[in-house]
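Handout, page 2. Input:
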Amino acid sequence: MTNYLLGKTFSVHTLGCKVNTCESEAMRMMLTDCGCKEVSFGEICDITIVNTCTVTNIADRKTRQMLHKARAVSEHAVIVAVGCYVQKSGIAETDIPADVCIGNRRKGEIVHVLNDVYRRMEAGESAPFSYLEDAPRSEYEDLPPTVSQERTRAFLKIQDGCNQFCSYCIIPYVRGRIASRAPEQVVKEATVLAGNGVHEIVLNGIHLSSYGLENHSAREIAELKPISGELPLLTLLRKIVEIPGIVRIRLGSLEPRIMTEDFIRGLSEIPSLCPQFHLSLQSGCDRTLAAMRRHYTTEQYKEAVRLLRTYFYDPAITTDVIAGFPGETEEDFSESLAFIGEIGFAQVHVFPYSRRSGTLADRMDGHLTENCKKERAGRLIAAAERESVAYRTRWIGKEARVLLEEPAPEYGDGFYRGYSREYIPYVVSANADAVNREMTVIGSKILPDRSVLVQ
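Output:
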């Protein structure tokens, strides 16, 4: 078969989540292995790939902007849009200058697809070309192991899809049902990464808490708990911890509902697990949580946090919160705002509610104005900033384990930047050979960028 890609140049631009980042790295490797040469996004090239996102209206807008930019830079390039935005919109989006649309679980076919595109163009066919699934597929698409672009930390995708159907979220419709990567494949890639000098592995997925549950009963999937035995995610962690060279394991976003005492106790027995837990919240008001179809209450969330703080020393609890959900009253919002302060988060990502066509929330009454959503988001951000500074300040004068990643020349010669196990950024005075090594430090003060200084 003719390799139409041999000698061609390509660029990749990634939008959205860390899952997209992992998938983009895999596509880079596949294209490079078949004879393509990568250039920076924004340079003239033969093929430009935009790995898209559709989680919010802003993400949609950024996707369109990047595709227009790609066309403006390389007028005669093959412009390829892959992922969530095109899975939702398809080739019918006439304002998108994309020659090729590739569905979410066909990214592993990038080489085959592009060869097919060039073959069809050689035969006289004209763009656009669509390679979308008729419906989101349920099986996991294995992508080849990647070589991390970072030396210290690598993101490892282990799960895809979501069965939760929160009322505001479009992702289950564009990512499909839950599907998990085989444990042996996860261990294989983690071993490759460790062999390339990566010391910290970050496990991620579209709904990480569902890892390994797709073959369980409907009840077990809905409750995120096996009837007998431990969660598959915990079993997987026990395998990864045995890989030589992996100093740290970090988890992506988790559901509060999986935070049972047995699960947390199991996590605490894994010495390389970082005590930073991103527990998605979305609202601190029970009425709003019910409207969001989040399947837990604020009391259940608090209990999960209490258990984490029982088994781990001052862990970092981070979260996401939506401001201005349809029907959210000022009283509802005040409850959510107060809850932020009650928990004491290390970091909160705040998002104004973004209306998504096709979701239940889109059809709800009581949509708020953009100004109201923006104002409430601002108040949440201010509260989150106070909590973040308070959490970091507690670590001043205490020992922390920091993995140094890169020079920090803005602070002078001999300063390096890294992160503690709690994912607090540190700036450390050290020797160059300390990079990519974990060291014990004691912070002295909080810098203007909220990093912790070690002198």
